[in-house]
Amino acid sequence: MGGNFTWVMIGCALIGAGASAVGVFSFLRKQALVGDAVAHALLPGVVLAFMVTGQKDIWILFPGAFVAGWLGLLSIDFISKYSKIKSDTAIAIVLTVFFAVGIVLLTHVQQSNYGNQSGLEAFLFGKAAAMLPADITLFVVVDTALILLIVLTYRYLKLYSFDPDFAKAIGLPVKGIQFILSSLTVLAVASGIQAVGVVLMAALIITPAAAARFFTGRLSHMIILAMIIGIVSSMMGVYISSLAEGMPTGPWIVMVMSIIAIMAFIFAPGKGMLQRSIKRKAHQQKVRRENLLKLFYSLEEKNEEQFFSRPQLLRSRRFRGRELELLLNKLTGKGLLFREENRYGLTDHGRSEATRVVRLHRLWELYLNERMNIAPDHVHHDAEAIEHIITPELEHMLLKDLDYPELDPHSSEIPGIKDMKR
Amino acid sequence: MNDFLIILEGSLVAVSCGLLGVYLILRKMAMVGDAISHAVLPGIVIAYLVAQSRSSFFTLLGAAMFGLLTTFMIELFYKKARIQSDASIGITFTWLFAIGVILVSAFSGNVDLDQECVLYGDIAYVPFDTLYLFSMDLGPAPVWLQAINLVAILIMLRVGHRGFLITSFDPSFSSGLGIKTDTWHYVLMGAVSFTVVLSFNAVGAILVVAFLVVPPATAYLISKQVETMMAYTVLFGILSAVMGFYLATWWNASISGAMAVAAGILFVLVFAAKMLFVRQQKKESMALVELKSS
Fold first, then answer.
1. What average pLDDT does this structure show over A147-170?
2. Are A9 and A40 a contacting pair, CB within 8 Å?
3. Rounded to whole angstroms, what are the CA distances from A101 to A127, A252, B253?
4. What ipTM was predicted for this assembly?
5. Of A126, A268, A359, B138, which has the fewest Cβ atoms less than 10 A away?
6. Which chain A residue has its CA at the smallest distance from B81's CA?
7. What local confidence, expressed as pLDDT, does residue A1 receive?
């Protein structure tokens, strides 16, 4: 550690910031894997630049990488445009063939006399620890250019990323925007390969953007958040890999980044897996409760009785295992049902809840039948699902639209309407 | 003899991978193949650590489990976290590959593996990994394993070809018929994982994708039926192995890399020929139209 360590940290943070910002656009255009192909495609460019000039200066290798990256991008477009090969296969072809050319050139250089070639293989897995102040200057230049480009063309990039057809229709220079976005990708990837290497570069493009998407839907916020994730994980990766001898930096950066992203997938508020599954469970519970109340209502309609035993309930609707028992206990606890010996009946509160659900069900059936011209024997299934979702506002609109109807398409009474009319 | 063995191993890898690749391409899953080939790395490192050997069948099987894990993870991210499919592929394989590289570095003293081998394997050493049975020299073990795997794949294709096809072209129709689409999917992914792991010694984790994708894609350009596509795939696979070997010895470079480059050259040639052919046909039909109208 010491002076050099600080430089490495700054360098990696810059790379992480640039790649993450650009990655947001690749992510939104569903072209995340193109970044992977570009990263692999850079390798032959780097080695060729070395073979021609005999120098390993990053300022010389960088243009080589840039050109090769662009060639890779063009090849992908060319293959998927002029043949029946789909874009994902085109990406895989370009990725491996360019990479193989790079490997052949690299091993050729290593096995013959090309002077001081050692260090070229650093581009495979990255060698952040060997970063020099001169490299940092390059990253500062490239990343400033990247961010400036994004800020200056932000409005066009945004429009194009979300709706390319619309952008074309209102006469924006779509080709130009595409060119800018592709150049941004190649620039970001080319500047990043020294830190994380060609193989893992894709992570810097994809992972922060995917994580940021879980917290915000606004493009500007997403870019800033992705950059923060990129910077934080780059710095942490550099730090962790400095703790042990011979630990590679790039993989640790990717490791930290991936863990942050997976945490986001699981725990993010709103869109995270955990909250979504809790919400889904809660909704399922609500559906089950409302269905049971409905069952009581329809049994009352048929039998002119008020209390029903468990076997009676089981005969009219299927329940899994202990589901019925749990539901009965729960609803009794909530004061919607009450128990008399072994039989259960609706309380007043429970009956008004059941009435509401049945009313919504029958209203929707009528709506489908009258307004959508769907046959009465086809409306039940749809209504089963929607009755748990309709809000009071929507119910009001339905009532108005159907002019407070009293009978559903099956000539059953829609409960509660008479009271409303009065 | 050694030259022959290297070419044989290369051809076996190319044919096994290529035949599976035909389905990957038809299912638009080429990049899933790419992801699996990267993601088995941690499995391979762990298997080497446990077994201290490179070609024990059961550790290879264990390593291949990581390939299946990859497909599970991709599906989980895609279905449960609702991340678009390209991003879930990218996140999964970079993460697993990073874990693999970290493991390689952490145990570099204990594992006979280095970063270069991860990238392009060492097919040149294949002839020296000899298999002995009752102290009888049976030839190189990797070639035997690869050959057995190829036979297994051929049997699988013979038995399951129709199932793979119908679930490739019309998954919803086939699940409507009661065919278990998921089962076929995981059988294919399992076969890809195992083949990738087997080929790892020879060609490394990344170049194997070239064998998985490029020959079948070349064949795809010029075939209208799956059976012809498979036949061409075998042809192009073997041709790349042979061409690549001589390219590498002539130019003094990585053999597996040169084999992948040869596959790329074949692709470019076929692509160009096909384009010329299509253009020629267009011209002729245009001329015909003019002739008729005049």
1. 90
2. no
3. 21, 27, 10
4. 0.91
5. B138
6. A273
7. 44
